[in-house]
Design a protein that fits this description.
By secondary structure, this protein is of the alpha+beta class. It folds into 2 domains: 7-146, Beta-Lactamase (2-Layer Sandwich), CATH 3.30.450.20; 197-318, Beta-Lactamase (2-Layer Sandwich), CATH 3.30.450. It is 51% helix and 24% strand. The chain is built from 10 helices and 10 strands. It has helices at residues 2-31, 38-42, 64-70, 74-77, 90-101, 145-206, 225-231, 243-246, 249-265, 304-318, and strands at 48-53, 59-62, 107-113, 119-131, 134-143, 210-214, 220-223, 269-275, 278-288, 294-302. The protein has a 5-stranded antiparallel β-sheet with strand order 2-1-5-4-3. Strands 7-6-10-9-8 form a 5-stranded antiparallel β-sheet, sandwiched between helices. Strand 1 (48-53) and strand 2 form a beta hairpin. The longest helix has 62 residues, at 145-206. The termini are far apart.
């Protein structure tokens, strides 16, 4: 902040005060009809100085710094209007010149063309002053091209940063929108899946057959209500366990062996098994799992009554 204040003080306040003093001195000398030797006064001054006639815009005087800066001879400068140098629209230059003449505004920024054709940004301090009996504007000109280019470069960097950030934010928002859309689709798909799972479970639980699915290690993935009742255990005490954990002795081994046979042969196997006084028809088949392995699915029907009826019929036929 202090550096900015110092630069403003150095480039605006000090020149303005010095120019005001010079203009007062010039006008006082003119009023007293004193002849001012401008070449002696301003010729070796480092700042570019011009006297520009009000109304016509003709350059009446140019010091050596102006000759060096613009690249024209002093004779060429004093034979041309300022509009030949100033790249701003002549009507706008005239408007600004009138404002300076009325002392409504004294600081301007223009783009001037040098004799080489190069364009330079300049800051002009202009005050009304008398020049050899003519109404003129005493103008002190500072080349501010480096500052303007630096400011433009800064603006470009800021613009690029804003555009980059805007693009990044746009991409991020697009990704978030896409993720939200996918999340909604996934939620919808999960809802449908949950519905169909509940529907499947309802149908399977309504079946009196024992229905289950085991993974590749013969651990239960799901078991219907009839199988849970058979084990006399809730679902969470069946899923994740194998037959060795839920059944006793030879019957557990027999069930596991039938499962392994279905996996090994990779085909549907139907058999009749019994435990105690109960008889079952088992249908087992390999089932592809999401991890690429195969598990075993089974439908087991209690055919005890059917078996008893069959035995009774066979005995009846013998007699």
């Amino acid at each position: 902040m202090m550096k900015l204040f110092f630069n403003l003080f150095k480039t605006v306040f000090i020149p303005a005060v010095l120019i005001a003093v010079l203009v007062s001195w010039i006008n006082a000398a003119e009023a007293n009809e004193q002849v001012i030797d401008l070449d002696k006064t301003f010729s070796e001054h480092g700042a570019v100085m011009l006297f520009i006639e009000q109304g016509t815009g003709r350059i009446l005087y140019a010091n050596e710094a102006a000759v060096k800066f613009y690249g024209y001879t002093k004779e060429q400068l004093t034979s041309m209007p300022i509009s030949q140098i100033n790249m701003v629209d002549p009507s706008l230059v005239a408007e600004k010149t009138q404002a300076a003449a009325r002392e409504e505004r004294n600081l301007f920024m223009f783009q001037h063309r040098l004799a080489s054709g190069e364009l330079r940004w300049v800051e002009v301090h202009a005050y009304p002053a008398a020049y050899q009996g003519r109404q003129a504007l005493f103008s002190v000109i500072h080349d501010i091209t480096p500052e303007v280019l630096l400011q433009k470069r800064h603006q470009q960097v800021v613009t690029v940063a804003i555009v980059t950030c805007g693009g990044f934010i746009a991409i991020l928002l697009l990704l978030l929108w896409d993720l939200r859309k996918k999340a909604r689709s996934l939620t919808k798909a999960n809802g449908k899946l949950a519905y169909y799972n509940a529907l499947r479970k309802t149908f399977m639980d309504a079946d009196t057959d024992l229905i289950y699915l085991k993974d590749e290690q013969l651990r239960y993935v799901f078991a219907n209500k009839a199988l849970q009742d058979f084990f006399q255990l809730p679902e969470d005490k069946v899923v994740g366990y194998d037959d060795a954990s839920l059944l006793k002795g030879e019957f557990a081994e027999m069930c596991a062996q039938a499962d392994w046979d279905a996996l090994k042969n990779h085909q549907l196997i139907t058999s009749i098994t019994s435990t105690g006084d109960r008889f079952f028809r088992t249908t087992k088949f390999p089932v592809p799992l999401p991890n690429g392995a195969y598990g075993v699915g089974a439908y087991i029907s209690d055919i005890t009554e059917e078996h008893k009826w069959q035995q009774s019929r066979e005995q009846h036929l013998k007699h």
